[in-house]
Design goal:
The structure holds two protein chains of two kinds.
Chain A lengths: L3 E3 H10 L7 H52 L2 H22 L3 H21 L5 H6 L1 H13 L2 H20 L1 H10 L2 H20 L3 H27 L3 E14 L3 E2 L10 E3 L1 E12 L4 E23 L5 H4 L4 E2 L13 E5 H7 L5 E28 L2 E22 L6 E6 L5 E14 L4 E13 L6 E2 L3 E13 L1
Antiparallel strand pairs in A: 2-5, 2-15, 3-14, 4-6, 5-6, 6-8, 6-9, 7-11, 9-10, 10-11, 10-12, 12-13, 13-15
Helix pairs in contact in A: 3-4, 4-6, 4-7, 4-9, 6-9, 7-8
Chain B lengths: L2 H9 L3 H22 L3 H18 L9 H19 L17 E3 L5 H10 L2 H12 L4 H8 L3 H30 L1
Helix pairs in contact in B: 1-2, 2-3, 2-4, 3-4, 6-8, 7-8
The chains are: A alpha+beta, B mainly alpha.
Pfam families (chain B): Sigma70_r2, Sigma70_r4_2
GO molecular function, one term (chain B): DNA binding
InterPro entries (chain B): RNA_pol_sigma-70-like, RNA_pol_sigma-70_dom, RNA_pol_sigma70_r2, RNA_pol_sigma70_r4_t2, RNA_pol_sigma_r2, RNA_pol_sigma_r3/r4-like, WH-like_DNA-bd_sf
C-alpha cells in the first residue's frame, strides 16, 4: 500500500522540482513590447506637462475672473458712492443713538445728525431722484427748517450742528450745554425732528436695503452693459504669421556627434524659423496659443580633421552617432571619409594617408516642425504691450544632415545623425513686446528661449541644446 | 548584482536588468503558467503577459515578502484575469459533491503526463486544483479570486481530483494491457 498515494501528494511531489524553460521567442516578444511601451510613453509625459499647464491656465483664468469682478462693481457709477456716503452717517447716527442711554442725548444727536445729513444733501447736487424719494422724511424736515428760517440761517444752523456733532463725538457732556445755548426754535425743531428722526430710525433697517436693491439693479444693468462693452472690445482670436532668426547652441560642453569632440570649440549657427501661430484670449490677461513653425538649427564643431581613408577601417574613426548614408552620395570617395578631432590627432598617433583638409569644421544641421503650446500673460496692454510667454513645443524632426566644412572649400555631406529623436520637446520662455498698429493689427516682437528636452540620445559630455529666436510678426485680431 | 539591485534597475526600466530578471525567473514562472494553462502555446502567452505586467508594476514592489512570491502572484493573477475575460468562471452552478479519499498507485507516471492531465482538465477544475493543491491557496482565497463561493471551490476541487484519478487509472489500465 506504500505506493498508494493521495492524488494531491502525487502531484505536489512531482511538480516540486519541475521547471521548464520557455522558448526564446517569448523574451523577444516581451522585449519588443517593452520597447513599444517606452516609445509610447514619451507622448503621455508631454501631455502630462501640457495637462498641468492647462490646469494652471484654467486656475489662473478662474482666479483672475474672480478678482476682476470686484473692481467692476466698484467702478460702477459715482452716484452709488455718494449715496453710500450719505447712508453711512445716518446709519452711524442710529448706532450712536442706541449707544447712548439718556433720551436727551439721543435726541440731540439724532437731530443734529439728521440735520447734518440734510446739510450733506443740500450740498450735494448729484443726488438722483431715487435717493430723494427714499428719504422723504429727511427732506420734509429740511424743508420745515428752511420754512422757518432763511437759507443762510439753515446753513449756519447746519454748521453749528456740525460743530455740535463733532463736539458730541468728543464729549457728550459739553454737548448738552451747547444745545441749551441754542434758541427755543431750534429746540423745537430738534424735538420735531427727533420724532421724525425716530420714524426714520424705525424705518432705517428697511430703507438701506431698499436703497441697496434699487441701486444694485441699476448697477447690475450698468455693469452688465460695461461687461458687454468689454466683450465687444476684446478680440479673442488672433493669427500671427511669424519669422525669426534662431541661434542654436549648447549650454554645457559636450557633443552630440562623438565623444572625441566633447572639448572641441563649437559655434552656434543662425538659421531661420518661420510659421504661423493662432492664439485665443481666455480673458484680458491670458492668451493660449499654438501653431506650426518650421525651424532649422545647426552648429559647427571646429578643429576637426577630415581625411579620406582606405587604410583605416571605418569603425575606428567614423563618428559614433553618424551613419554615412551611401545612397545619397554620388561621390564614391566619400565612403572612406574619416573624421577625427585635431586635438586627439597627436595622441592617437595615427597618420592618415591623405588629409582632405586640416582645420575643418563639422556642421550638423537639423530641422524640425515645431508645434508650440504656450500661454501668454499680459503685463501691460497699452499702445505698447508687454507680456510673458511660457510653454512647451513638440519638435518633429524633418531634416538631419552632417557636413564637413573646410575653411576654404566646399561642403561635403557625411551622413546623418542617428541620435536625434523623431519627436522631442522643448521648454519655452520668452517676452512678448507688441505695438498696436491699428485696432485689428499688432506688431509683435518676441525674444524666446527654448530649452530642448529629449532631442538627442547618446550625447557625450554635458550637451544641453537650446535655441534662441527673436520672433517677429503681425498679429491679426478678430 | 544582488536581487535587490536588479529590482532597482528594473524599476528604472533598464533593459539589461529586465533581461536578467527574465532569465532568473522565467523557468519557474513558465512552469506555473503551464500548470494553469490549457496548453504550451497558451502558457507562453500567459508568461509574456505576466512579465509585461511585472515590469510595469515592479515599482509597486516594496520589498515586503519574497520577490518570487510576488512574481508568482502576479503571474497567477494574469492568468486568472485572462480567463475572467473569457468568462471561464461563469459555469452554471452545479450540485456539490462529497470529497472522498482518492488514492492511486504511483508507478512510472511522468511529470509530462501529469502536466498533460492537468491541462486537459476543464478550466475551472484546473484552476482550483492548481490554486489549492499546488500553490497552497485556501478555499476562501480561491473563492475570492475566482468570484465563486467556497462550496463551489470545494466541489470543483473534488471533481478535479476525480477526473485526474480516472485519467490515471485509465492510463494505467492501458499500460497494463500493453504489458500483457
Amino acid at each position: 500500500m506504500s505506493d498508494k498515494k493521495h492524488i494531491d501528494r502525487l502531484f505536489q511531489e512531482h511538480f516540486k522540482d519541475f521547471e521548464v524553460a520557455p522558448s526564446d521567442a517569448v523574451w523577444k516578444n516581451i522585449e519588443a513590447k517593452l520597447g513599444e511601451k517606452k516609445k509610447k510613453r514619451i507622448i503621455p509625459i508631454w501631455w502630462k506637462y501640457a495637462g498641468s499647464a492647462a490646469v494652471i491656465a484654467l486656475l489662473l483664468t478662474v482666479g483672475i475672473q474672480l478678482f476682476s469682478t470686484e473692481p467692476i462693481e466698484r467702478e460702477t457709477p459715482e452716484n452709488v458712492n455718494t449715496n453710500i456716503n450719505i447712508n453711512t452717517p445716518s446709519s452711524e447716527s442710529i448706532k450712536v443713538a442706541s449707544d447712548h442711554t439718556t433720551k436727551d442725548e439721543a435726541n440731540n444727536e439724532n437731530a443734529e445728525l439728521n440735520n447734518n445729513s440734510n446739510g450733506i444733501k443740500s450740498t450735494q447736487n448729484t443726488l438722483n431722484s431715487k435717493q430723494k424719494t427714499s428719504t422723504p422724511v429727511q427732506i420734509a424736515s429740511s424743508t420745515e427748517t428752511t420754512g422757518k428760517m432763511d437759507p443762510h440761517d439753515v446753513e449756519s444752523q447746519i454748521s453749528k450742528n456740525n460743530n455740535n456733532n463733532t463736539l458730541l463725538a468728543n464729549t457728550s457732556e459739553s454737548n448738552k450745554t451747547k444745545l441749551s445755548d441754542d434758541t427755543e426754535k431750534n429746540e423745537l425743531n430738534i424735538k420735531e425732528e427727533y420724532t421724525k428722526n425716530q420714524n426714520i430710525a424705525e424705518n432705517k433697517p428697511e430703507k438701506p436695503q431698499e436703497k441697496g436693491t434699487n441701486l444694485t439693479i441699476e448697477d447690475a444693468i450698468k455693469s452688465s452693459n460695461s461687461i458687454a462693452e468689454e466683450k465687444e472690445k476684446l478680440n479673442r482670436w488672433s493669427i500671427t504669421p511669424n519669422v525669426a532668426p534662431v541661434y542654436f547652441n549648447s549650454l554645457g560642453e559636450g557633443s552630440s556627434l562623438d565623444q572625441q569632440f566633447t572639448n572641441n570649440a563649437k559655434t552656434g549657427e543662425i538659421n531661420m524659423s518661420y510659421g504661423i501661430n493662432a492664439s485665443y484670449a481666455l480673458n484680458k490677461k491670458l492668451r493660449i496659443r499654438s501653431g506650426v513653425n518650421r525651424v532649422n538649427l545647426g552648429y559647427n564643431t571646429n578643429n576637426v580633421v577630415v581625411y579620406e581613408s582606405t587604410a583605416f577601417s571605418s569603425s575606428s574613426s567614423t563618428l559614433e552617432n553618424v551613419s554615412p548614408s551611401g545612397g545619397f552620395v554620388s561621390n564614391s570617395s566619400n565612403d572612406g571619409i574619416a573624421v577625427i578631432s585635431s586635438e586627439n590627432l597627436s595622441e592617437a598617433g595615427k597618420t592618415p594617408e591623405t588629409f582632405k583638409s586640416f582645420n575643418t569644421s563639422l556642421n550638423q544641421s537639423f530641422g524640425f516642425i515645431e508645434v508650440p503650446l504656450e500661454i501668454e500673460y499680459t503685463i501691460t496692454d497699452k499702445k505698447f504691450g508687454l507680456n510673458v510667454i511660457g510653454g512647451f513645443s513638440s519638435l518633429f524632426l524633418n531634416n538631419n544632415d552632417v557636413y564637413s566644412e573646410p575653411v576654404n572649400g566646399s561642403r561635403t555631406y557625411i551622413g546623418e545623425a542617428t541620435n536625434i529623436k523623431d519627436v522631442s520637446y522643448s521648454a519655452n520662455f520668452g517676452l512678448g513686446l507688441n505695438y498696436k498698429v491699428t485696432r485689428k493689427i499688432d506688431f509683435n516682437l518676441e525674444p524666446m528661449f527654448k530649452y530642448q528636452i529629449n532631442t538627442f540620445s547618446n550625447t557625450s559630455g554635458d550637451f544641453k541644446p537650446y535655441f534662441i529666436g527673436i520672433y517677429s510678426g503681425f498679429a491679426i485680431k478678430f | 548584482m544582488s536581487l535587490n539591485q536588479l529590482i532597482e534597475h528594473c524599476k528604472k526600466n533598464d533593459t539589461r536588468a529586465q533581461s536578467e530578471l527574465y532569465k532568473l525567473f522565467s523557468g519557474k514562472l513558465f512552469t506555473l503558467c503551464l500548470k494553469y494553462s490549457r496548453n504550451y502555446a497558451e502558457a507562453q502567452d500567459h508568461l509574456q503577459d505576466a512579465f509585461l505586467t511585472i515590469f510595469d508594476k515592479i515599482n509597486q514592489y516594496k520589498y515586503k515578502g519574497s520577490f518570487e512570491g510576488w512574481l508568482r502572484r502576479i503571474t497567477v493573477n494574469t492568468v486568472l484575469q485572462q480567463y475572467r475575460k473569457e468568462k471561464v468562471f461563469e459555469i452554471a452552478q452545479e450540485e456539490n459533491i462529497e470529497d472522498e479519499e482518492i488514492e492511486i498507485d504511483e508507478d512510472t507516471i511522468s511529470i509530462e503526463f501529469l502536466l498533460k492531465l492537468i491541462q486537459e482538465l476543464p478550466d475551472r477544475y484546473r484552476l482550483v486544483f492548481n490554486l489549492y493543491v499546488l500553490d497552497g491557496y485556501s478555499h476562501k482565497d480561491i473563492a475570492e479570486m475566482l468570484d465563486i463561493n467556497i462550496g463551489t471551490s470545494k466541489s470543483n476541487l473534488a471533481r478535479a481530483r476525480q477526473a485526474l484519478v480516472q485519467s490515471i487509472e485509465a492510463y494505467k489500465a492501458s499500460q497494463n494491457l500493453q504489458s500483457l
